[in-house]
Amino acid sequence: MSKKRVLSGIQPTHDSFHLGNYLGALKQWVHLQSDNDAYYCVVDLHALTVETDPKLLQKRTLLSAAQLIAIGIDPNKSTLFVQSHVPAHNQLAWVFECITGFGEASRMTQFKDKSQKGGAERTNVGLFTYPILQAADILLYQPDFVPVGEDQRQHVELTRDIAERFNKKFGKVFNIPQAQIIKSLAKINDLQDPTAKMSKSAASMAGVIELLDTPEATMKKFKSSVTDDGKEIKFDEKAKPGISNLLTIHSALSGKSIESLESQFSGKGYGEFKTEVAEIVISNLEPITRRTNELMSDKAELIKILEIGAQRANQVASETLKSAYSAIGLI
Ligand code: TYM
Fold first, then answer.
1. Can 200 be counted among the known catalytic residues?
2. pTM of the predicted model, to two decimals?
3. Catalytic residue selected from 114, 220, 223, 256
4. Does the C-beta of 43 come closer than 6 Å to ligand 1?
5. Catalytic residue among 59, 168, 172, 197
6. Cα dihedral sign for 290, 293, 299, 302?
7. Quick one: which of 218, 224, 232, 313 has the fewest CB in 10 Å?
8. Ligand 1 centre and the CA of 288: distance in Å?
9. Quick check: 167 and 179 in contact, CB under 8 A?
10. Distance CA 26, CA 8 (A)
C-alpha cells in the first residue's frame, strides 16, 4: 500500500515555539514522519501578516527550521521547507481567492479575533486572506492528513470546502484532506490563565512556556502557575482548569496516564506537583535547546537542508498547480 501523505506548517513569528505548539502539533509531526510521506513548512509568508523587522524574520525562519530538526523532524524522512521558497503557494492562493466568498472568509474566528483586537485600520488584507493561502499550502501537496491543534480546525474545514468546490466546478484536481487533531492535546492552556489557549500573542509571557526558555525561567513559570481552589490533584477541566492543564502536560511528556498521576499525587500538595511537572518539561526541553543552538551555529548547513526541501516541495507543488491552472482554463 502506498504511504499516506501528511502536510503541516508553523509560523516563524517568535524566537521560540511554545509548549502548546510542541504538544498540540509538533510531536505529532515527528511521529507521523515514520510511516507517511510528510511535508512540513515554515510559513514565512503568513508571518508577514504580523509586522516584523526583516532581520528578525530571517533569523526566526532559520530558528524555526532549527527547532523543528531539534525536536526530531528528520530532513531525510520529511520534506522540510520554507513556504516562500515554493512560489506555487501564492499562485494557487490567488485562484482560491477567486472562488472563496467574502462572507465565508469573514467568518473565520481567528480573523475576527485578530481584526477586532487591531481595529479595521490596523488590520491588513493579508490577515483576511490568510486562511486561503493556508488552503493553498495544504492542497498543493494532496495530503490525506493535516496534523494541527484545535485552533486550526476551522481553517482545515475551509480548505476542504474550497477543494470540494473547485473539484465540483472544474473536475477533480484536489484530494480532500482531514485535520488530524489529538483530542487530549488539542488545546494546551496558558499557565496564568488556564481557560485560554497558550498563545504566542498572549499579552504576557508569564504563562507561556517557550521551548528555548532557560530551565530557571521554566521552573519559575510553573511554580507561579495559577492553580485552583482546593488541594486535590484531580483532572476536572471545569472545576480545576489549572491542575487539569498541568496533568495533561505531565502525562504527554512522561507517558503516564492521568489516572496514575492522580494516584501518585494523592495526598500531596500543589507545590510538589508543580515542581515535578516543571522538571519533566525541563528535561524534555534541554536537549531541544542544545540541538537548536548547535544547528544555528552552522547556518550554511541549515540553509542547504532547506534548499533540498524546497526542491522536493517545488516538484510536487508545481505539478498540482499545473493541473489546477489547466482545469480552470488558464492556457
Ligand atoms: P501556528 O504557527 O499558530 O501554530 C502551529 C501549530 O501549533 C498548534 N497550536 C496549539 N496546539 C495546542 N495547544 C495550543 N495552545 C496551541 N497553540 C498552537 C496550532 O494548532 C498549529 O497546528 N495557520 C497556522 C499555520 C499554517 C498551517 C498551514 C498549518 C499555515 N499554513 C498549513 C497547517 C497547514 C498557524 O498559525 O499555526
1. yes
2. 0.97
3. 114
4. yes
5. 197
6. positive
7. 224
8. 19
9. no
10. 9
Is-catalytic flag, 27?
Answer: no
Of 236, 219, 216, 218, give the one whose Cα is nearest residue 227.
Answer: 236
| Inter-axis angle of helices 299-328 and 54-71, nearest 10 | 100
Ligand 1 center to 184 CA (angstroms): 16
24 lines ligand 1 (CB under 6 A): yes
pLDDT 10s digits, 58-96: 999 999 999 999 999 999 999 999 999 999 999 999 999
What are the grid coordinates assigned to 69, written together? 530538526
Determine the Cα–Cα distance for residues 143 and 80; give it in Å rounded to an integer: 15
- CA 207: distance to chain centroid? 18
pLDDT, tens digit (0-9, with 9 covering 90-100), for 236-255: 999 999 999 999 999 999 99
Evaluate if residue 122 carries a pLDDT over 90. no
DSSP characters over 54-71 = HHHHHHHHHHHHHHHHHH
Closest CA to 230 of 214, 216, 244: 244
Residue 20 Cβ inside 6 Å of ligand 1? The answer reads yes
Residue listed under C-alpha cell 511537572: 277
Calculate mean pLDDT across residues 146-160: 97
